[in-house]
Write a structure and sequence with these properties.
Blueprint (H helix, E strand, L loop, with lengths): L2 E6 L9 E2 L2 E2 H19 L3 E4 L9 H11 L3 E8 L6 E6 L6 H17 L6 E7 L2 H4 L5 E8 L3 H7 L2 H19 L11 H12 L18 H17 L1
Parallel strand pairs: 1-4, 1-5, 5-8, 6-7
Antiparallel strand pairs: 2-3, 6-8
Helix pairs in contact: 1-6, 3-6
Amino acid sequence: MSIVVIDPGHGGKDPGAQGNGLVEKQLTLQFGLKLRDWLRQHYQVDVRMTRETDTFLSLSDRAQFANRLNATYFISLHHNAAGGEGFESYVYLGMQENQSGTYQRIIHDEVMQYLSTLGVKDRGKKDANFAVLRETKMPALLLENLFVDHEHDANLLKNPAVIDEWTKSIAKGMAKALNLKELSPVQVPDWKKEAVDWMFNEGLLTNNEWKKTLENPLPLWAEAIILRRLYEKLNRK
C-alpha cells in the first residue's frame, strides 16, 4: 500500500504568511486534515501527517519523518504572501523531467481544473531548492495555495465550501498520479450511527465533522476531551 505523507507547513512558533485575517499555519493544517480525511475515506492508501496540531517542526524533521517511513509520496502545503496572486506548485531543482515532475503535472492540472472556475491565476509548475523537497528521498511536491494578502485569493481561502472542493481536487490529483485504488462505499451500520448520535446528544462530541468519519479511530486528544467531558458531567450530578 502506498504511504503518503502530508506536511502542513509552518506551525507553533512559526505562523508563516499572514494577511486579511488569515494565518498560514492555521490554513495549512485545515487543508492538511481535510486532504487526509478525503484520501482515507476514498482510496486504499496509508496517510500520515507531519503534524496534526499547532506544533513546530523543523524542515529537516519533516523530511526525515517521511524518509523513516519510506514513504511513497510527500506533499507539503503552503500559502503565499508579499504581493501576487494565484496557485503554483514546486518540485526540487531539475526534477521536472523525473517522476516528481510527472506527478506534479497531474496534480497541478487537476487542482487548476477546479480553481480556474473561480478565476484563480495559474502561476505555473516550478522547481526550487526548498529543504523539504531537497531532503526527502521520495517524489515530493510543494503547493502554494494562493496569497493570503490578496483580496480575491483571501476570500476564497475563507470559504469552507471552496476549501472542501479544493482539497478534494488535490486528493483526486494524487490518486491519479499514484494510481490509488478507490475504496468501495462504506456502509455504516445503524447501531454505530445511533451510538455516535448519543455522544453528540450528551455533549461528549460537538464537531459534526466526526460524523463523516465514523469508521476512523479517534486521535488520543479527542478521546481525552470526551473523557474529560464525561468526568465533568458525572461530577455535576
